[in-house]
Specification:
173 residues, alpha+beta, Lipocalin, 9-stranded antiparallel β-sheet, 3 helices, 9 strands, 19% helix, globular, disordered N terminus
Length: 173
């Protein structure tokens, strides 16, 4: 995945210790080779929870006028420095109200990035540097406040795919 030029923070979800954050790079919103009217977008999802994958990279293909997307590829990058390519539900679906909608807005309505709060981070950054920025910087907690004692649930790559399939209304395996 190429997010090393000028990534943008797309969104952040959930509460500690289960936050995740999404990044995309405007320089890599490109036409699809087979269907140049469609746009390709790489998104990187970084997880705070140490039981989750380190990050997951997605390649989305978007039909902007029809407000549809499909997931062309999903790769989970585990904390043990291994990667796992996951089966992607490659059918076209309406853009769901979720982080996928933020990716759609990023690629298909670039003039609204600033008002949508999609913060440019500068750069360039390599993927692992961006993961470090998220996990060591953006996920920090004010140390003067007591930290809640919450047992973080286990999140596996299978959980990530099941959540993606549920968002896309695709059957789980």
């Amino acid at each position: 995945m190429n997010l090393n030029r000028c990534p943008r923070l797309l969104d952040q979800f959930s509460d500690t210790p289960n936050r995740d954050i999404f990044f995309a790079d405007a320089q890599f919103v490109i036409p699809a080779k087979e269907h140049p009217q469609n746009k390709l977008l790489n998104i990187m999802q970084v997880f705070e929870n140490p039981n989750s994958p380190n990050y997951v990279s997605y390649t989305l293909e978007l039909r902007c006028p029809e407000r549809q997307l499909r997931v062309n590829s999903v790769t989970a990058h585990l904390r043990a420095s291994r990667s796992k390519v996951l089966p992607a539900p490659k059918r076209w679906v309406p853009v769901p109200r979720s982080w996928l909608e933020r990716g759609y807005d990023f690629a298909c309505a670039p003039e609204k990035r600033k008002i949508n709060g999609m913060t440019p981070l500068g750069g360039p950054f390599e993927e692992m540097r961006l993961v470090d920025i998220a996990q060591l910087g953006l996920f920090t907690v004010d140390q003067s406040k007591p930290r809640p004692r919450i047992k973080a649930p286990e999140t596996t790559t299978e959980d990530v795919m099941n959540e993606l399939n549920a968002l896309l209304d695709a059957p789980s395996k």
